[in-house]
Design brief:
The protein is α+β, with helices and mostly antiparallel strands and 104 residues long. It contains four helices and three strands; from the N terminus they run αβααβαβ. 49% of the residues lie in helices and 18% in strands. A three-stranded antiparallel beta sheet has the order 2-1-3. The model has no long low-confidence stretch (mean pLDDT 88).
Length: 104
């Protein structure tokens, strides 16, 4: 009986190596898009970008001008939950904002 226990102990003490294929995938980033509208003042849009995202005036102004000239601008890119929060905040300031997946 003792021999059997010693054999089992020796078998469990052996280390078996198993090859495991581990792949880590990161979530695709999301873009927050602000769209142009004919009503909202450009200075207001600049101020909202500064308040919501904490951007300096120069960056907020550049993004506002892009919205005005091209009809839309990617104002932030990152994780989906935070992007959804930003879109909600922008809606609260009466700006037209949407989400889309980033190609990056």
């Amino acid at each position: 009986m003792r021999d059997v226990l010693e054999v089992r102990a020796a078998q469990t003490a052996e280390s078996t190596e198993t090859e495991v294929d581990v792949q880590t995938r990161t979530a695709r980033p999301w873009n927050v898009i602000v769209h142009d509208d004919p009503v909202t003042l450009m200075s207001y849009v600049t101020q909202v970008f500064m308040d919501v995202f904490g951007y300096p005036q120069s960056k907020a102004d550049r993004l506002m001008r892009e919205v005005h000239s091209t009809g839309r601008s990617v104002v932030w890119t990152g994780e989906r939950e935070r992007a959804e929060l930003y879109v909600s905040k922008l809606h609260g300031f009466h700006l037209k904002a949407t989400l889309e997946t980033s190609e990056a």
